[in-house]
Amino acid sequence: MYELIPEPKTFHEAKRQTDRMDKAISMAAQGYTATRFATTDKAFYVDGGSDTYLVYLDPVHCSCPDFARHKDCCKHIFFCIQQVMDEASFEAWGGDDRAQEEGLK
């Protein structure tokens, strides 16, 4: 798949990644959205805060100031990874067909 998350080299880097993951988990509830580019499944627009950011998953990159400063995964990247994983789980579970059978859609 993708080589998404570089392994942290220090405790500080690991803590920063964990903080970003925690923030990413709450982003959907805060109204953030991740919209894929029509031409690729590896690039997203993330919108919901005061700005819209461009996120690439391969190679990992985000247009936000946090990524520019640290050159490490930001909450926007983790949010997009979460979206991809949710979609993969949904498809593995049976997708729309199974959701309709179970009365979930």
Strand content: 15-25%
Order of helices and strands: HEEEEHHH
- What's the helix count? 4
What general outline do the C-alpha atoms trace?
globular
Rg estimate, integer Å = 15 Å
Report how far apart the termini are. Answer: 29 Å
Task: Explain how this protein is built.
The protein has 105 residues and is an alpha+beta fold. It has a domain at 31-101. Helix content is 47%, strand content 16%. It contains four helices and four strands. The chain has a four-stranded antiparallel beta sheet with strand order 1-2-3-4. A hairpin with a 5-residue loop joins strand 2 and strand 3. Helix 1 (11-27) crosses helix 3. The model has no long low-confidence stretch (mean pLDDT 82).
Overview in brief:
The chain is of the alpha+beta class and 105 residues long.
Helix-strand layout with pairing:
Layout: H1 11-27, E1 33-36, E2 43-47, E3 53-57, E4 60-62, H2 65-70, H3 75-93, H4 95-101
Antiparallel strand pairs: 1-2, 2-3, 3-4
Features:
about 45% helix, single chain, 4-stranded antiparallel sheet, globular, alpha+beta, 4 helices, 4 strands, about 100 residues
